[in-house]
Specification:
about 60 residues; mainly alpha
């Protein structure tokens, strides 16, 4: 019964099974859209790649 309640709360917060990994503040605002999350990750990865290339050029 307890688990059913947890699932209901998680579904209401728009998070699926991965909802519990998000920050509570973001959960309160209805979770982060998956597309936005992917864009942020892609930007971070791209920036890291550029940064690594720059660092390797210096050595």
């Amino acid at each position: 019964r307890r688990r059913k309640e947890m699932d209901a709360v998680r579904a209401r917060q728009g998070g699926g099974p991965r909802g519990q990994f998000r920050a509570p503040a973001k959960k309160a605002q209805g979770g982060v859209p998956m597309g936005l999350l992917l864009i942020v990750v892609a930007l971070l990865a791209g920036g890291l790649a550029v940064f690594l290339k720059f660092v390797l050029k210096m050595f």
